[in-house]
Amino acid sequence: MNRLNAKELRTSERDDKLLAEIKKNPIYIICDNVLDTYNIGSIFRLCDALAVKRLYLCGQTETPPNPRIKKASISTWKWVDWQYKENVRQAISELRQAEPHIAIVAVEQHRKSIPFVRFRPEFPLALIVGNESYGISAGTLALSDKIVELPMFGINKSLNVMVCLGIVLYKTVDYLPQNK
After folding, report:
1. Partners of 48 in beta bridges
2. Is 83 helix (H, G, I), strand (E, B) or coil?
3. CATH second-level architecture of 14-179?
4. Of 43, 21, 13, 49, nearest to 130 (Cα)?
5. What is the structure's pLDDT at 15?
6. pLDDT of 1 above 60
7. What burial letters (b/e) apply to 71-105, b meaning 16+ CB within 10 Å?
8. Which intervals hold domain tRNA/rRNA methyltransferase SpoU type (predicted)?
9. Can you say whether the dihedral through the CA atoms of 171, 96, 56, 142 is positive or negative?
C-alpha cells in the first residue's frame, strides 16, 4: 500500500480507492467535549495511524475544516471517517444500532474505574475520551459499560487527552485477533 508522508498528506485530497485498501479496525473513538483543536487534530492523526473505523466529535468539540485541526492532523481529517453528533448519547445510540455487541469504554479517572492493565478489550469497541479540564461528563460515564484509567505515579494527576488515548489505543490493538 502507498503511504503518504506529512508533505503529501498536507497537499492531498481524499482518495477513496486508496482508502479502500486499508482494513479498518473495529474500534471507534468518541470525543466528549474535547475543546483543544490541537488535541482534536492529533486524535485524527492517531485514528488514521491505527485505522480506527470512525471518530465521533460530540458536543462542543470543534470540527473540521478548522485551520488548527488541519495543521495538527496534517490533513488526516480528510482521510479519517468522522461524524459530528450533538451529544455522546447520539453517537452511542448509532453505534449500538450498527454494532449491537459493541463495548463502550470510557477512559477516565473515576471511583468505578479499573486500572488499564487489568482491562481486556472486546471488539467491536468504542473508547470515549473527555474534556481536558473536566473529563468525561457524568451522563456519558453512565452510558459506558466500563471505565478504565491509566495509573499516575508522579505529582501530576492526569495526562493530555491525546497522549492518554494514544497509550490506550496502541495497547488495545494488541488484542485484535490479527495481532495475537
Report:
1. none
2. strand
3. 3-Layer(aba) Sandwich (3.40)
4. 43
5. 83
6. no
7. ebbbbbbbbbebebbeebeebbeebeeebeebebb
8. 27-170
9. negative
Determine the Cα–Cα distance for residues 128 and 176; give it in Å rounded to an integer.
Answer: 18
Describe the strand order of the beta sheet including 82-85 as a list of residue ranges. Answer: 82-85, 52-58, 25-32, 125-130, 103-107, 146-149, 114-115
Whether 45 shows a pLDDT value over 60: the answer reads yes
* pLDDT tens digit sequence for 124-177: 999 999 999 999 999 999 999 999 999 989 999 888 999 999 999 999 999 998
Q: Domain limits of the chain?
A: 14-179
Tell me the whole-structure pTM to 2 decimals. Answer: 0.94
Pairing of strands 125-130, 114-115: unpaired
The kind and range of the H/E element at 97 are helix 88-98
Give me the chain's average pLDDT, please: 93
Dist. CA 85–CA 94, nearest whole Å:
10
| Beta-carbon count within 10 A of 167 CB | 14
CA separation, residue 17 to residues 22, 74, 94, 139 (Å): 9, 20, 26, 39
Examine the pLDDT at 8 and tell me if it is beyond 80. Answer: no
